[in-house]
Amino acid sequence: MMRLFFDPRQLDHAPAQELHNGAFVPYAETPARAQALCAGVHATESPTDHGEAPILAVHDAGYVAYLKTAYDRWLAAGRSGDVMGYIWPVVRRRALDLTRIDALAGRYSMDSSTPLTADSWTSAYWSTQSALSALDAVLAGDRVATALCRPPGHHAGADYLGGYCFINQAAVAAQAARDAGIARVAILDIDYHHGNGTQDIFWDRGDVFYASVHADPATDFPFYWGHADEVGEGAGEGTTLNLPLPHGTTIAAFRAAQATALDAIARFDPGLLIVSFGADTFEGDPIANFALKTSDYAMLARDIAATGLPTVVLTEGGYAVDNLGENLASFLSGF
Ligand code: Q9C
Ligand code: ZN
Fold first, then answer.
1. Average pLDDT over residues 242-254
2. Which residues, 6+ apart, have CB-to-CB distance to 122 below 8 Å?
3. Closest by Cα among 179, 171, 178 to 203
4. pTM for this entry
5. What residues line ligand 1, using a CB cutoff of 6 Å?
6. How far is the CA of 28 from the centre of ligand 2 (A)?
């Protein structure tokens, strides 16, 4: 039986609303998503606590301090509700040691769709511990293990949150695997959205391969990353592979793109594969525009399993809550 990790503290983070296309709407990345993921699988195990060190091996210390203190700073500034920035330092400025919450919220975020609550750090921390525990299982010899990562991670960079993500679980697990002695790690990202945070973190590194199949950023979030000509830089040149696809994509084209990614990963010859699995490629997803069916996920997983690589599966997006459990179950059935 495949081991699955989840901690109930991952349910605590519950922002009220997000800014979407010019209006406040209910937050799509709900605790109900985690309940649906759990309902889709057999019983989960609690993760073991690996502490903050594996998080700090990827994320900036000032950013981690921000995640832990932002809500209290927000209250201290006389605010109520969730922390949201309204100004971003997109014009390159000096690195300033600012303390006002609004300056920090801009400095440490990429968008306005990721409010930070009193519980965000705790939920993201345990989501990350679940990922690290799944990694432990695979390092100990399991062929595959899964973490139900909610909140998700692939949009979070070394020093920024965004896209419903605070800590990048795939990146933290990849770095932990490197630190455990695995020379080369590959990340396959099949969430609907490009994993800009993961790409940024390993952009100039030759030891971690990042391959992503996703909606064309010309039309979809996160817009500024994930174009086909982004291949990495320096030691990382050639270890980033982006395979954007158009709205309406069905399993045939998605599976072919994933095969291209898996071929490139096989050539990289990693000792471990981490899969960022998003079910927001589903035909019924309310915030996305691909058309995969529930049974398609089993086929994608069988293709991944055919690589023979030790594999850690981490969940990312997927907002058709009523179908999320069965979509995850279909995917996991393919291993
Ligand atoms: N205001 C994941 O699937 N929505 N994140 C943008 C524009 C953000 C999705 C709304 C979508 C992020 C993990
Ligand atoms: Zn997504």
1. 98
2. 9, 12, 13
3. 171
4. 0.97
5. 19-20, 113, 152, 155, 163-165, 191, 193, 221, 278, 280, 316-317
6. 11
- Whether 244 is covered by a domain: the verdict is yes
- Report which ligand 1 atom has the smallest distance to the Cα of 111: 1
Backbone torsions φ then ψ of 170, nearest 5 degrees:
-65, -40
* C-alpha of residue 212 to centroid of ligand 2, in Å: 12
* Total of domains in the chain: 1
Per the structure block, which two tokens stand in for 318?
Answer: 């997927």
- From the number of C-beta atoms within 10 Å of its C-beta (0-12, 13-18, 19+), residue 97 rates as exposed
193 catalytically annotated: no
- Report the separation in Å between the CA atom of 308 and the middle of ligand 1, taken as the mean of its atom positions: 32
236 half-sphere exposure, CB direction, 13 A CA radius? 20
CA of 119 to the centre of ligand 2 (A): 22
**Catalytic residue among 155, 193, 194, 214, which?**
155
CATH of the domain at 241: 3.40.800.20
pLDDT band at 50 (very low <50, low <70, confident <90, very high): very high
* N-to-C CA span, the chain: 11
Q: At what angle do helices 61-76 and 120-139 cross, to 10 degrees?
A: 150
d(CA 74, CA 71): 5
Residue 45 bridge partners (DSSP): 5
Q: What is the dihedral of CA 2, 198, 194, 315, to 10 degrees?
A: 20
Helix (H) or strand (E) segment spanning residue 64: helix 61-76
Asked if 204 and 235 count as a contact pair (C-beta separation under 8 A), the reply is: yes
3-class SS of residue 100: coil
pLDDT confidence tier of residue 90, bands split at 50, 70 and 90 = confident
The domain of 207 spans: 3-59+117-333
For position 216, what pLDDT does the model report? Answer: 98
266-290: b (≥16 Cβ within 10 Å) or e: eebebbbbbbbbbbbbbbebebbbb
Number of the ligand 1 atom closest to the C-alpha atom of 163: 12
What is the position in ligand 1's atom list of the atom closest to the CA of 318? 3
Q: Which amino acid is at 116?
A: L
